[in-house]
Amino acid sequence: MIQTRPYEFMASYTPQREWIEKRGALLWFAFFFIELGAGTFMVSSIFGSLPGMLVGWLICALLGGGFHLIFLGKPLRFWRMVFSSGWKTSWISRGLIFVILFLASGLAHMGLTLWSNPLTFLLIATNIFAFLTVIYGGFAMNTVNGIPLWNTALLPILYVVSGLWGGAELTLGIYLTQGKIVAGIPVEEAIRILLIGFVLLIPVYLISVRYTSQAGKASVKYMVLRKWSLLFWIVVVILGMVVPMTVVIYSFIVGLEASPLVILYAAIIFGLLGDLSMRYLILRCGLYSPLIPTSG
Amino acid sequence: MRWGMLINLEKCVGCNSCAVKCEQEHFLPPGVLWGRLLFSETGVYPRATKHVYPVLCNHCKEAKCVDACPTRATQRREDGIVWIDSNKCVGCRYCLVACPFQVRTYYSKELEYYPGQGLTEFEKLGKKLYPHQIGTVLKCNFCMERIDAGMALGLKPGIDREATPACVNICPAKARYFGDLDDPDSEISILIRKWRAVQFHPEYGTDTSIYYVMG
């Protein structure tokens, strides 16, 4: 229905393409890994997991940073995003600065933790930069007022919750790999809270966008009823929410240490897959309002 | 001073001259359009009506693309022209996404007008006279080279052809007017008031410099 033909460009609801099609898909992965990495670092640092911090840092630096650089048309000019005065108004410039500060302070903190005594103020600063790293993508999209699906204050909140939730899942996965699962492990509690937050936030976000404008309504329909509905309902809702929720309830009843590892790993993988797919849908289903009147 | 354009949709015949002249003036590569025509239909047969809307960069006073640009490659001059310094553009396409009017183009790869037959003399000339950088974003610059060169000679944009954007000069229906929006006595300001011209999507708060007389 909304597969725009050339003569329909901006004469009907037109999907944004630059940030999702062809090389634009790299930015989808870039935002996901940047936020997942920073989220993992935050959750791991709260629970004192140095391997978790390292994994989060590496995901953010190598995958997030790498995809960002490959996406750029002129990657060798990326330094201009830091040293121009673009940060005064541009969230992409601010984001790069946050990422650099997070990576630098995170590396220093991990180094001190490993070879000396960690400094509390450095840990606090790193977590502040990590938080800003998690949230900047939401703000970068939230300021695009031509796309109602993005132009909502709930988007940065959604990205923070999903980034931290993904981080908590990955931290749990690292604990599982290390065989450090014991009763009452604190990350389990964090996962429960963040998963409930994510599950509640998605419908609130979509319903709020649905009532903003006609383009908002069309975007939500595009996502949940039309072309992308299978991805939304099967991957995001069933695999990404229902499966993890079921496992969380199961592990709450029988205890995390008594839960089969395969179920826990599956819940983590499906949870991350649902998060990744939701981000894809947010990028893919962002529709611009038509420029000109049409009877459609 | 703030340069602006008025497009009278009652006069526009949808001949695409403006788009073609723009391609020629700026040696635009295939697939890159700084100005284009949008078509729509309203009503149903036998009362269906076809509408033509020429669109180009709106050179907004509160341009979203200027705020979005992380490298300050997209800039707004004192005369209101929004332009891109290609040497600073990093190709992040944030400006392209941020523009609610979708009038920017990302120049992703070099294409020939006649694929497999090599560049034409015109294309070769363009590479020397008006080089576009692959991996950057391109858009209408209101023919600022013509405006600057013309004004240096004491000419007046909108009145003297040599200092006026090419799409305005070429329009065979005389549907386009160019001039200073800040001057209440300029022809364009008078016509905007007289014809009750409107801006596209004022709700975005960008205060566009392109006005339309709705047909």
Largest interface: A-B, 44 and 45 residues
CATH topology of chain B: Alpha-Beta Plaits
Q: pLDDT under 50 segments of chain B (min length 5)?
A: none
Ranges of chain A where pLDDT stays below 50 over 5 or more residues in a row are none
Number of domains of chain B: 1
Q: Cα distance, first to last residue of chain B?
A: 28 Å
Give a quick account of the main beta sheet of chain B: strands, pairing sense, barrel closure. 3 strands, mixed
Q: Which percent range describes the beta-strand content of chain B?
A: 15-25%
Question: Helix-strand pattern of chain A, N to C?
Answer: EHHHHHHHHHHE
Strand arrangement, major sheet of chain B: 8-1-9
Identify the CATH class of chain A.
Answer: Mainly Alpha
Total count of strands of chain A: 2
Oligomer: heterodimer
The overall pLDDT average of chain A reads 92
Tags for this entry?
heterodimer; A: 296 residues; mainly alpha; Formate dehydrogenase/DMSO reductase fold; two-stranded antiparallel ribbon; 10 helices; 70% helix; B: 215 residues; alpha+beta; Alpha-Beta Plaits; two-stranded antiparallel sheet; 7 helices; globular
Report on this model:
The complex is a heterodimer of chains A (296) and B (215). Chain A is globular. The mean pLDDT of chain A is 92. Chain A is 70% helix and 1% strand. In chain A, strands 1-2 form a two-stranded antiparallel sheet. Chain A starts with 13 loop residues before the first strand and ends in an 8-residue tail after the last strand. With 296 residues, chain A is an all-alpha fold. Chain B is an alpha+beta fold and 215 residues long. Chain B has a single domain, classed as Alpha-Beta Plaits. Chain B has seven helices and nine strands; from the N terminus they run βαββαββαβαβααβαβ. In chain B, the strands form four sheets. Chain B has a three-stranded mixed beta sheet. Chain B has a two-stranded antiparallel ribbon with strand order 2-3. In chain B, strands 4-5 form a two-stranded antiparallel sheet. Chain B is globular. The interface between A and B is large, with 44 and 45 residues.
